[in-house]
Amino acid sequence: MILLQTKFQMKDEVLHALVQKAGEAGLISDETLFLNAVLNREAEVPTAIGYQIAIPHGKSEVVKTPFIGFLQTEEEFIWTKGHEEQVKLVFLIGIPAENENNIHLKFISQLSKKLLDEEFRNQLIEEKNQEKVFKLLRSINVVS
How far is Cα 144 from Cα 142, in angstroms, rounded to an integer? Predict the structure, then answer.
């Protein structure tokens, strides 16, 4: 669930690619339903948070287990038309409908804290090795 140096320039392309990966990995039972959940959440409030980061997420009964996917683009792009936020790093979070522990809120909180570290952000933006990116992401401590 780590896609690096992609050439995507539109939110819909990014979300489709990440949702497709989640489907291939068996993390969701229906790609269309999950993509719709993510897009509906995006329609409420865009999930670009600054620092070239977006954290789209969807809560759905088709999510078999909580997951986080990561996508890095070669070039930054505007995440939502009408907003100025440029994005280069995208974290897609999948949450089961019966999510009791609000794991996505804990991850978003911990990720946001970690992303205040400029060196950490730059490593995620520049790293081209999947294993090294995985290690960086594993350093984010999500307390359950």
Answer: 6
